Amino acid sequence: MSTSAPSGHESPSSQPQSTPSLADRSAGLRHCRIVDGQPLSVDQLLDAVRDPSVGGVAVFIGVVRDFDEGQSVTSLSYSKHPSAGEQLRECALRVLENHEVVSVAVEHRVGHLEVGDFAVVVAVGAVHRGEAIAACKELIDDLKHAVPIWKEQQFTSGDTAWVGLG
Description:
By secondary structure, the chain is of the alpha+beta class. It has 4 helices and 8 strands.
């Protein structure tokens, strides 16, 4: 007796999967928060996106750099609107809806940061690397545009400059 599927029929495991519902997609949002006054943990976000079905993880880490706008930076301060946490969540949910990814985790820091500190960490897990990379890029680009967080840079000259107010 043959155990293979009859000719012209696909076995159940090779049939196309249905698109997950929004509720299923939101379950992929494993971690999302604004962090005030403490360092961000890349390991925590990597742990959050791990899953047996994940074959690729893309990570973006935004770091405070020492030079911007033609001047040496000494530090910066991030300020947020009260809606920033909800806006960050909406950005992450959009990525889950727009991409075939399994899991997303994101944190953005506010408050005072020194050169070299992590300002934002995005991690995305997907079955394949291409979707993880594309979703990670979309999430960092979207949150930079949509989440109401602004930075004030302090320069060695004593001058300051606000970024992201417009």
